[in-house]
Amino acid sequence: MVSHIGLVGLGKMGANMRARLRQGGIEVTGYDPRPEVTDVPTLAALVEALPAGKRVVWVMVPAGEPTRGVLAELKKVLTTGDIVIEGGNSHYVEDQERAAELAENGIGYVDVGVSGGVWGLENGYGLMAGGSDDDIATLMPVFDALRPEGPREEGFVHAGPVGAGHFAKMVHNGIEYGLMQAYAEGYELLAAKGLITDVHGTFKAWQRGTVVRSWLLDLMVRALEDDPKLAKLDDWVEDSGEGRWTVDEAIAAAVPLPVISAALFARFASRQEASPAMKAVAALRQQFGGHAVKAAE
């Protein structure tokens, strides 16, 4: 049974995960390049601090090159029987490639999509794992310490083999795009109609007894309590990449995703100071119908 793990990456998510694991009875040795938060000075020291036998290291750093770099270093210092958990938002294809590379040294690999954000320490994390049955069984004490209280199947899933965890998280994030966009469009329409004098109160009333209630709705209410007109924020919205991957997979599988696709494209539109496409639409309307247009400033 796993009772002590290493954790690489002690940012907003990683630091809170370390705290929740410790609260759940799992000893954690954490490593981060920042000396003020790390438990050990180097990645090699982290591995040395773990008990001999089946060592477990959870990697919680940004997807892409940072993750690839950490996994390459771990391949040098871990041995046969050890297990790496990749908990970032890596593309599932990369999981399969990294797992094959680590398997050359007899090192197991489990990919875990982690949902819960900064609230995970208090509420627990939703976990979607990909890996072998044996590795998942070995790691269940760790997953049980992190997941929300209640039935295991409501906060954890062994989604399939390596890659399945991050594929499930990718689709989860695509759905999240669509839900956030729907709430955002509803907010804009409510605010635009002078008939509605209490936009915040309207959202708050939806929190109980309605079919649109959700944790995202609760967070929308919190945001409006802090800033009723959202005047403190710019309308630029980034995307992490998982929305794009979701749409790519849908195209490859010929699965229609009109809502998620539109939500992704809305984020692209948020970054435009001016829209070349809409300028073209205005020009065409002027050309074929003589419709009025506005001159550029």
TrEMBL record:
**InterPro entries linked to this entry:** 6-PGluconate_DH-like_C_sf, 6DGDH_YqeC, 6PGD_dom2, 6PGDH_C, 6PGDH_NADP-bd, 6PGdom_BS, HIBADH-related, NAD(P)-bd_dom_sf
Q: Name one GO biological process term.
A: D-gluconate metabolic process
Q: What Gene3D superfamilies does this protein map onto? A: N-(1-d-carboxylethyl)-l-norvaline Dehydrogenase, domain 2, NAD(P)-binding Rossmann-like Domain
Q: Name one GO molecular function term.
A: NADP binding
* Keyword Secreted listed: no
Which UniProt keywords are listed?
Answer: Gluconate utilization, Oxidoreductase
Catalytic residues (UniProt) = 169
Please list the residue ranges annotated as the 6-phosphogluconate dehydrogenase C-terminal domain. 165-292
Protein origin, superkingdom: Bacteria
Q: Which NCBIfam families match?
A: gnd_rel (TIGR00872), PRK09599.1 (NF007161)
Identify its protein family: Belongs to the HIBADH-related family. Belongs to the 6-phosphogluconate dehydrogenase family.
Kindly provide the name given to this protein in its UniProt entry.
Decarboxylating 6-phosphogluconate dehydrogenase
Q: Which gene encodes it?
A: gnd
